[in-house]
Write the structure tokens for this entry.
Amino acid sequence: MTAFGLNNTSLKYHTTFDNTKSSILEPLLTCDVLVIDDLGTEPINKNVTLEYLYLVINERQLAGKPTIITTNLTPDGVINRYGERIFSRINNKLISLNIKLDGQDMRLKK
């Protein structure tokens, strides 16, 4: 799922007030592996983006479920955009592996 898609799902969860609410985030919390692509490209919605990103990452870590995140942000960029709480969970040296990839954008290569 893209970070934008995660943000939209979080907004839907946040604005749902009926018995379908629990089924909105449940797939993100229970899938075997969650991939969040292009973190940092989504808009920051007040009371939604940071709160639900934290919830998803934290709940998955507590359940021992792997999450793969791609981003073009530097570590400082992640801290500035998402804060220390989220940064510490996605960069936890005990359970995280950070891989920096350098090279050409393959989409631009002919």
The first strand starts at residue 34 and ends at 39.
